[in-house]
Prior knowledge:
alpha/beta
Amino acid sequence: MYIYKAAVIGAGTMGAGIAQVITYSGLPVILRDVNQEAVDRGLATIRKIYQTRVNKGKMTASELEQKMALVTGATDNSGFSDVDIVIEAIYEDVVVKQKLFQELEAVCPETTIFASNTSSLPISAIASATKKPEKVIGMHFFNPAPVMKLVEVIPGLGTSDETIDDVVLFSESLRKIPIRVQECAGFLVNRLLMPYLNEAAIALEEGAATAKEIDAALVAFGMPMGPLTLFDLVGIDVSVKVADILHDAYGSRATAASILGELDQAGRFGTKSGAGFYDYKDGDQAGLEAIIQKMQTSGGLQETKFSANRIIMPMINEAVISLQEGVASAGDIDIAMMAGTGFPQDKGGPLHYADQIGVDVVLSELQSLAGRLGERFWPAPMLKRMVAGGYLGVKSGLGFFHY
Length: 403
Ligand code: 3HC
């Protein structure tokens, strides 16, 4: 089915970003939110994205207006009778999403696809409340949606092959890279990204290094931004929710750093609230330092050392566990991490990187970290099998890939 018209529900940063991406590819889109103020904010976000392009000489002012004419703001369901795909980017609550899709099923055509941009809620659960679970699918964009090339395509248990194919083609028409991912908590990218981000937060609260030192080390590794800066971009409130879902699914290895809860309670939600791991108003880090100081003096935290490997190894380990579980192929895991998080292209993604440095090196590094810092670093069983079988990566000609 070709998609001629889309609707995005939720005009926040992600929803507006997704609507901008759709208009950029030339398709009309309805942007709906609960009140006109929220819709206007979303429309202003889209205009600002285009205005930046105009300012850089990448498009003209009249092209901007042509793109803006493709978006219709809405606070009700008028205009939904010919919508081919609905993408929801609303509050992360299964019941709220279920109710939304139930309501929209009544006004949209029989053929409409209902896609959720949820970060980690189960697609099958959202679909279970609808009349046509075969039409419900996960379509997960990454922040900032206009820039990040990845779209995770996540079928639920009842999603039809036709819906999957349609969403893959639609994502390609948006000039994105769709990667099909098996449904699991965190899907693929958040599942791999969160252990990496979380370890950076643990290293910070344990006093292993400052926020700036941690971020600088990972930028030196080649990441486009440091993990603590990325936490602030994604949002501490959003990250706490994702971390809870991962902990619920994967247990103790996914225990969230305590500092995330502290920041959340202090209203330090990241860039959107003006402060998170960093203070964006005056650049003064005293607020963060006071939180860390309080955590350290209240006890229960060990004093540990920092290394970039400490932050990167959990991502590689989770990539191997995900590969073992068949969440995605090795090639797709690497493409997803490069397109969804900017993992350095010269390292080729976490699994190519493991092959470059040696699968045996990854195994012994994880074993050493597990001994020093805890069982969250426990190596994926597949790593031991590979090393025992001589699959050491580039140096032996065989690893996650063939050389
Ligand atoms: N909206 C629109 N465009 C933006 C933007 C935004 N918020 N931020 C940056 N851009 C554009 C710029 O205009 C510029 O466009 P141009 O190439 O046409 O001139 C381009 O992106 C590059 O921007 P900058 O030069 O200002 O900055 P950088 O080169 O440092 O790139 C970045 C910024 C793209 C954010 C980069 O730092 C990056 O890739 N960071 C990693 C982001 C990441 O990991 N995202 C995933 C988070 S996880 C997630 O979203 C899942 C969710 O479920 C939690």
